[in-house]
Amino acid sequence: MRLWKFEFAVVAAVACSTCVSSGNDSLQVVAAWEVPLPTAADRAAFKEVLSRNVSKSSLLHLDDVKVRWKELEELEERDDGIPVGERGTIFLGVWRGKHDEELIAVADDSGHPSLVWISFLRGKHAALAKNFRESTIKDIEIRWPTARALPVLPGGQLPLFSDLALTSEGYKIKRSAIYHYDLKDDSALLVPK
After folding, report:
1. Phi and psi (nearest 5°) for 136?
2. Residues 119, 56, 3, 85, CA torsion sign
3. Does residue 177 share a domain with residue 132?
4. Domain residues for 42?
5. Res 25: pLDDT
6. How many domains does the chain have?
7. How many Å apart are CA 142 and CA 5, to the nearest integer?
């Protein structure tokens, strides 16, 4: 798989509200978790958790594009506003099909190093995606008890990291960002008043 394909799929699947709102609900994020992975050993253990859950189905495979991502950063002068130290350390995608026919989950820590966000998509084959999601989340909760669920917007996207606040109830969206996400003042996704 080429890096651009992975990057495009991540952007399309996680951030593209137009795609989701146009009826392609297989691209909706249905669950997302933040997993603290401060060391290389933690990242290797996380990759092993994904590999183990992927291996439960002959239809799934895991792509690790970290090396290609780093090579791209070195080759190209990036002017994306992300400082070098915040560009991430892990870039993983779970796909259905030998030719990457469907993205099932994506994990990276770009913009929030050592705090990996894994997003689980609804998928066209919802039962397959659900089985992978449920078993992976269970393993994450056991291995990393400080992992936290992330709020998923009604349209199936994630808010920006900078728009989140940690509360006693977990992550909530800052009230100052209410209009970025077209949320009502009484939304349970917002920091309580």
Report:
1. -70, -45
2. positive
3. no
4. 3-158
5. 77
6. 2
7. 32
